[in-house]
Amino acid sequence: MNGDIFIDDTFEDKTVQKWEANTNSFITVMYVESPCSALFVDNNYTLYCSMSAINKVVKRWLNDSNLTSITTVVGTDSRGLASNELSNPHGIFVDTNFDLYVADSTNHRVKLFPPGKLNGIVVVGRNSSNPTIDLNLPIGIVLDAEKNLFIVEYGNHRIIGSSSNVFRCLVGCDGQGSESNRLSQPGSLSFDRFGNLFVADQLNHRIQKFEYLEKSCGKLK
User: In what order do the strands lie in the sheet containing 197-201?
Assistant: First the structure.
């Protein structure tokens, strides 16, 4: 909320850095054993890191002075399909109830882990109890204030959104391409406060903005 930016710097230094907006300086905030595919800071000022290479998500309370005080939240060092396992986790999101959502990428699903639980629930994708749509390499996820879930689907070059537990394609629904309505290997997404959607369109080497139009989208935001 104060404009600080958290940056994965683990490929060489095995650290996560914080760029402080008020001082324009970098501070090391966490040491990790493997690169972070995604970072997230929750309302309790806890920093989460998803480690795709070793199939788990870890966290660290940022007010703790010990930079190596890290807790494994979910996952093991082994890749798998079990309720306590992940396979190349990428995008993560923690809501206001501290529920953790993980893009379980090569298991082709998104899992929900309630606070303190090591066993997750598949909310969409492979082995979901409510199979509304198939996923192919989900790598980014965002929840809005109404608990709607938005998913970057790398393998199908599209953005998926939910409303009332029904998932549908929102962007890139006509397949891979470079036209303004298509994506090519999208990597992440974000919303501004007006509901406009920004997508890192990786293979097209661009950032795409999709404007929120209330009359065309109904209640889906």
Answer: 186-191, 197-201, 206-210
Side chain identity, residue 131: P
Task: Please answer whether residues 129 and 112 qualify as being in contact, where contact means their C-beta atoms are separated by less than 8 angstroms.
Answer: no
Q: How far apart are CA 51 and CA 162, in angstroms?
A: 26
Q: Find out whether 193 and 200 touch, Cβ atoms under 8 Å.
A: no
Give yes or no for a contact between 125 and 106, defined as CB atoms under 8 angstroms apart: no
Tell me 79's DSSP state: B
Give the count of beta carbons closer than 10 Å to the beta carbon of residue 107: 25
Q: Interior CA angle at 209 toward 204 and 213, to 5°?
A: 145
Distance CA 143, CA 149 (A): 5
Contact 35, 51 (CB under 8 A): yes
pLDDT tens, residue by residue, 109-127: 999 999 999 999 999 999 8
Task: Give the 3-state secondary structure of residue 202.
Answer: helix
How many CB atoms within 10 Å of residue 134? 15
Mean pLDDT for back-to-back runs of 10 residues, the chain (221 residues)? 91 90 94 94 96 96 90 93 96 96 97 95 90 93 91 97 88 95 96 92 96 64 41
Amino acid, single-letter form, for residue 120? G
